[in-house]
Amino acid sequence: MADRIIPSPVQNPESEPFYAAAKEGKFMIRRCKDCSKPHWYPRALCPFCFGDTEWEAASGEGTIYSFSPMRRAGYTIAYVTLKEGPTMLTNILGDPDKLACGLPVKLQWTVTEDGTPVPTFAA
Amino acid sequence: MSINGRAYIVGAYEHPTRKAPDKSVAQLHAECARGALADAGLKKSDIDGYICAGDAPGMGPINMLDYMNLKVRYFDSTDVGGSSYIAHVAHAAQAIAMGKASVVLITLAGRPRSEGQATGTAARPGNPGIPDSPWETHFAPVTANVYAMVAARHMYEYGTTSEQLAWIKVAASHHAQYNEHAMLRNVVTVEDVVNSPMVSDPLHRLDCCVISDGGGALIVTSPEIARSLKRPLVKVKGAGEAPKGQLGGEVDLRYSGGAWSGPRAFAEAGVRPADIKYASIYDSFTITVLQQIEDMGFCERGRGGAFVSDGNLISGVGKLPFNTDGGGLCNNHPANRGGITKVIEAVRQLRGEAHPKVQVPNCDLALAHGTGGLIGSRHGSATLILERE
Hints:
The complex is a heterodimer of chains A (123) and B (389). Chain A is mostly beta strands and 123 residues long. Chain A contains 1 helix and 8 strands, in the order H-E-E-E-E-E-E-E-E. Chain A has a 5-stranded antiparallel sheet, with no helix packed on it. Chain A has a 3-stranded antiparallel sheet with strand order 2-1-3. Chain A is globular and about 45 Å long. Chain A starts with 15 loop residues before the first helix and ends with a strand. The relative contact order of chain A is 0.23. With 389 residues, chain B is of the alpha/beta class. Chain B is 33% helix and 17% strand. In chain B, helix 6 (162-176) crosses helix 10 (286-295). The chains are: A mainly beta (123), B alpha/beta (389). The interface between A and B is large, with 47 and 41 residues.
C-alpha cells in the first residue's frame, strides 16, 4: 500500500507553537498547571478543569488503540494512546496487515507539502 | 417538570423521491412540510413553530421560514447532524409544554445523490476555526474510517465479528423488500455483506448506508389539538440528548453518547428497554446499530454481536424489530442525515400503518434513537420514546 501524501495542517494560534517545535523535531503535549493532567488535542485551557496549561516534551511512544486501513486510498487512520496518557488521532505508516490494537508504535514525523512535520506513527 | 404526555406527533411524512435532480433543496423541504400537514389534517396557517437543522439552506431557520412564508412565534435550529430531528421533537415538546408554540413543524431535506457527494470517504477541507482541525484534518478522518475504528475496537474488546455486523444489514434488507420506495430492495445474506468490497477495514460496502436524495417532516402539537384531529395518538413520552467527543484525550470507543441520552429518555418515560416493542436506530453503518443497541440497554455491553445475529432484528422473527422501512442501510438517507426517517417509521409502527409484512403486532411503545456526526470522534446523540395512546 503506497502511503498517501499528507497535506499540510491548517493552523491557528493554539496550534502554531506545536508545529514550530515539530520543525525542531520536538513532540509536545500540554499539561494542566492546576490539576496536572495531560490532554490531547492541545488547548490553552484544561479540558478537565479549565486551568491554564503548558507545553511539555512527550516521549513519542504509544500503542494503537484502534485503527482502520483504507487500502485503496493508501492510508491507515488510527488512535494512538501515548505513554503519557492521552489518546490522539493520527495515521500509521507502513503495511496495515501487520497492525493490531494494542501494538506498540513510535512517533515518525511525516513532512508535509509546505515543510511542516505532522506526528505520524509506525510499528 | 417533564415533557411526558405534554406533546403528540400528529403529522409524519417521508418524501418518496430518492433522486431529485429537478428539485431545489428548499422545494423538497416545503414538499415535506405540505405532506406532514396533510397527514395531520392541519393547515399551513396552523403552524406557529418551526425547527430545522444544517441541511436547511440559509441561516438557521430564517431563509426556509421566508421561503415557506411562515409567521411563527417559536424557532430553533439546533444542529447535531443526523440526530438533530430526534432532538427537535423533544425541543418542540418543551416549547409546547411552556406555551411557546402549539403546532411545530420540523423538516429535513437534501440532495447528496444528485450532487454526487462521496459522503463516507471524501476527505474534508481544513478549517482553522474548528478547534480540532489543526490536529486532525490532514490525517483524513472521514466518515467511514472513523466509524470503522469503532468496529475494530469492538472486535478487539469483545470478539465481535464481521458476520455478526452483517446480520444488521440482512435484517434491514428483509424489511426493505416490502418498501416500494426503498433504494435497495434485494434481500441479502451474511455472505453477501462480508464478500462486498472493503471500504474501510473492517467495514464493507454493505455495512454502509445508501446515499440518497429526499427528506421528511414532522408535526408536533399539544394534547388538546392532537385529540381534535382524526389521527391515532402518538404521545411523546420521554427524551434524552447528549454530546460525546474525545473526552480530552480519554478516548473510549466502547460506547457513544447514546449511553447517556438513552437512560435519560427511559427515565423520563418511566419504562425499561424490555418494554420497547419497536426500535428505530440510526444505521449510518452496521456498527452504529450494534453500539446503539448496547447503549440503549437492549443487551449487555459487548453482547451486541450475539444479540443482532440470527435475525433477532427482523420483524416477525426476532425479539427487537428495528428499522422496518429498511432504514438508512436500504431505504434512504436524505441529506446524509437519518434522524427524521427514524421518527417517521416509529410513528407508522405506533399507528399500525407500517407495511403489513413488517408491522409489529400491538405496537404501543417505540424508541427512535440517533447519533449525528461521528461516533468514533465527536457527535450528538438523541433518544425519543413514543407511546400509542
